[in-house]
Design a protein that fits this description.
One of its GO terms (molecular function) is ATP hydrolysis activity. Keywords: Amino-acid transport, ATP-binding, Nucleotide-binding, Transport. This is ATP-binding cassette domain-containing protein. The protein has 7 helices and 10 strands. By secondary structure, it is of the alpha/beta class. The protein has one domain: P-loop containing nucleotide triphosphate hydrolases (Rossmann fold), CATH 3.40.50. Strand 1 and strand 2 form a beta hairpin. Helix 3 packs parallel to helix 6.
Length: 221
């Protein structure tokens, strides 16, 4: 398995948020994590990224226990994520925002990786010199996805990638994510519902009140 989460508990300020999470995503597969706002989706993603401490259980990636490893270690393991709120730096250009992970993590082939991202999403290259604050919300989502792909060569976690995006750009995002399948990436897509991800994923996991269960395709939310 690529990502293996076992019996995971996560608390924030002493309040239990995630309880007994078990989740498996095989290498090169896409999975959906579906749950309403407040169900624990972002907490789980942040725990996987090492941004929140784990109270109990383990997170393993490609057979390596990364539960207690510092967050920067995830980049070294080629794990990345696209946060729900994009977190672009408004004053920097699109290209500068895209290259930030390469600079921060000393990724030597960042420029080559950027060219690959631009080949996936040529429209980003078209406004590469524009400031991030000049982009629409949907365009910023594309840039945030591209930025995550710079270090995320093995596993990428997408937190509400379609939220607040116009239908035409949501369709474009779906197309780009679908193209990642051919790149051998393991992908976890967190959404409030599976409107956009149902046709993309190989498996779906439901999260409710901090507990996760796997559902078969065709099951109702």
């Amino acid at each position: 398995m690529s990502l293996d989460i076992s019996d995971l508990d996560v608390s924030i300020e002493g309040i239990g948020i995630l309880k007994g999470i078990n989740l498996l995503i095989p290498t090169g597969k896409m999975a959906g994590l579906i749950g309403h706002n407040g169900a624990g989706k972002t907490t789980l993603i942040r725990a996987i990224m090492g941004l929140l401490p784990v109270s109990k259980g383990t997170i393993s990636f490609k057979g390596e226990d990364i539960t207690r490893q510092p967050s920067h270690r995830r980049a070294n393991l080629r794990i990345s994520y696209m946060p729900e709120d994009r977190r672009l730096i408004p004053e920097l250009s699109v290209t500068e925002n895209m290259l930030m992970p390469a600079w921060a993590n000393k990724i030597r082939d960042g420029e080559e990786r950027l060219k690959w991202v631009y080949s996936l999403m040529p429209e980003i290259a078209d406004f590469g010199e524009r400031k991030a604050l000049q982009l629409s919300g949907g365009q910023q989502k594309l840039v945030a996805l591209g930025r995550a792909l710079i270090p995320g060569r093995e596993l990428i976690l997408l937190d509400e990638p379609f939220e607040g995006v116009a239908p035409v750009l949501a369709k474009r995002l779906s197309s780009v994510i679908a193209d990642l399948r051919g790149e051998g990436l393991t992908v976890l897509i967190a959404e409030s519902d599976d409107t956009h991800s149902a046709d993309l994923v190989d498996s779906t996991w439901r999260i409710e009140r901090g507990a996760v269960s796997q559902s078969r395709k065709g099951d109702e939310p």
